[in-house]
Design goal:
191 residues, mainly alpha
Amino acid sequence: IFAAYHTVFDINLQGFIQWAMWSLVLVITTGIVGRYFYAKVPRSISGKELELTELESEGLDLKQRVLKILGDPELYERYTQGLGIPERVRKAGVLRLVIAMVAADFRRKFKLFRLRQILRKEGKMSRSAAKEAINLLRKMEAVKQNIIFLEKSKQISRVWHIVHIVAAILMFVVIPFHIYLGMKYGIVLVD
């Protein structure tokens, strides 16, 4: 925001000013996007990347906990219908995969919101049990998504890391020149 004010919101900049501004925008953008993909690579509490078997075990544990709360496997199937991610997405290209990841996140949020409304309306369980079931379903669906996207997420995260580092280096190389040229040829403040 400060950089945009510094350039007076002018996107038709020239020379080092343009390079400095757009390298900063690139670093910020890759940082935001990269953070999203970094969060998609599941990690343990210690920060170590989880393996597929650990994720599958966690998913089964969450499913058992949800089944215990709901009490009926038929209810579980009815409530979770349409929550999953198609298996064919696993073999998709990177761009299609990225779109599927973002779409799955939004779809999951919407479906869990609707499920919360259904659980409240039907009144088959207490409010706290319904809330716990929704939280467990949210975690379970996130684990399922992580299982499907595990390898691709790691690949995307590595590529993002390289792009982000290059953009940051570019910014840190260009900005000192921008400052130097601004001090040498810039406007002198008059009393």
